[in-house]
Write a structure and sequence with these properties.
The chain has 371 residues and is of the alpha/beta class. The protein is 24% helix and 27% strand. The protein is built from nine helices and 24 strands. The chain starts with a helix and ends in a 16-residue tail after the last helix. It binds flavin-adenine dinucleotide.
Length: 371
């Protein structure tokens, strides 16, 4: 199987090294252990035909389809990982209603979509939430503003699902200052935990996966969870229980403390309120994700019940901006992966025709293509 980073053009304002780590994490978790080389685009990147907001199933299939139609593509997602709800909310659940699969694990479907989209080498910008979307007066180009960059595109496909996902953060007043200094909401570089004393907070798939990944390298791994039931795949929980991770159920985090780096945590038993102090070097938190339409509702788009209204061509009220997948609404709308694929396909074909009126709307059949 080709490595995903070789298939994509990964772009980010941060050092390329950071993204090598992200891809390594993604590959370890979803693809295979091969660590590839990759290319990194310069600061503001090139103008693309189609910018896709959202790297969930709809955005990924849209990226594939736009590539098939010869368009240059960039996917921007607020998360550090592709796959949208598939990889964030239910990676270990089986899906039964995607055409061509009688049963497929969500994370495997995401992996296949990533592989399919990767054939056309879209640029990928992860960890960037699109805050503003504007049309530039003279050029007619769209500019997509994130906190760190401005991306430019001739047309835009909003495949933002339920809105930008962000990891829920610790409700402790000093937590923000420890981010990057021992406090992590994503695991980007496993080696960073080698010989460290690690505390993992959470009881879902990610927290349990992290425990299984980190514990073989770390000096000590403790996982705390506020209940005694885990919301993770049974086999992963079993693996964790059989490993070296110290599991403390009914425990919660009360305090983190240290100098520049985290040095210790106070945890407590939520049944007895008894407190314990742990010496730690790193805290990994996965207590869920929050999502909201956020800035999208301020972009001048027609919104109905928290979704973006589209016409039969999946075009919004602003020409050149299309929407598809969970975020789009029209009469008869069904929020399913299968319908998102079809909507992405329609949106891309009309976007192609809009940018190049000589191009047919109907793309022909891919089975007739010569590669
Ligand atoms: P999403 O998967 O939500 O992806 C949208 C992406 O856009 C996210 O990654 C988000 O971070 C990003 N984004 C949003 N706004 C911004 C912004 N401003 N800037 C940058 N990035 C942004 N469907 C089925 O068909 N079959 C099933 O069996 C099924 N099971 C499900 C089980 C569960 C537990 C859940 C929660 C959903 C299930 N679904 C199922 C629904 C399915 O997952 C969704 O329909 C599908 O994920 C929608 O895909 P999408 O690409 O439109 O949006």
């Amino acid at each position: 199987m080709p490595s995903i980073a070789n298939m994509f053009h990964v772009e980010h304002y941060k050092a390329s090294d950071h993204y090598t780590k992200c891809w390594r994490y993604l590959e370890r978790r979803f693809i295979n252990p091969k660590i590839p080389s990759m290319s990194v685009e310069s600061a503001n990147g090139a103008i693309v035909d189609l910018a896709i907001i959202g790297g969930g199933p709809t955005g990924l299939f849209g990226a594939f389809y736009a590539g098939l139609r010869g368009m240059s593509v960039k996917i921007i997602d607020s998360l550090e990982i592709l796959g949208g709800q598939l990889t964030t909310l239910y990676p270990e659940k089986d899906i039964y209603d995607v055409a061509g699969f009688s049963q497929v694990l969500a994370k495997d479907l995401a992996r296949n979509l990533i592989e399919q989209a990767g054939q056309y080498k879209p640029s990928i910008c992860l960890g960037e939430r699109v805050e503003a979307l504007k049309r530039e007066g003279e050029s007619g180009l769209f500019s997509l503003h994130t906190k760190t960059k401005v991306h430019r595109a001739r047309a835009v496909l909003i495949a933002g699902g339920m809105g930008a996902f962000e990891p829920k953060t610790l409700p402790l007043p000093n937590a923000p200052r420890y981010v990057g200094h021992g406090l992590h909401y994503f695991v980007n570089d496993l080696q960073g935990f080698r010989d460290k004393r690690v505390l993992i907070v959470g009881g879902g798939d990610s927290a349990v996966d992290w425990a299984n990944m980190v514990s073989p390298l770390a000096a000590a791994t403790t996982l705390i969870h506020r209940r005694d039931g885990f919301r993770a795949h049974e086999q992963s929980v079993e693996r964790m229980r059989n490993g070296v991770t110290k599991i403390l159920t009914f425990f919660e985090l009360k305090q983190i403390a240290g100098g520049v780096q985290i040095e210790e945590d106070v945890i407590y038993d939520n049944r007895t309120k008894e407190e314990h102090t742990l010496k730690v070097d790193a805290v990994l938190v996965n207590i869920g994700f929050s999502n909201s339409l956020g800035p999208i509702k301020d972009w001048g788009l027609e919104i109905e019940g928290g979704s973006i209204k589209v016409d039969p061509m999946m075009q919004t009220n602003i020409p050149g901006i299309f929407a598809a997948g969970d975020i789009a609404v029209f009469p008869g709308k069904l929020k399913l992966i299968a319908t998102g694929f079809g909507e992405a396909c329609i949106a891309v074909n009309f976007a192609k025709h809009l940018l190049d009126p000589k191009a047919n709307i109907f793309p022909g059949h891919s089975s007739n293509m010569k590669r």
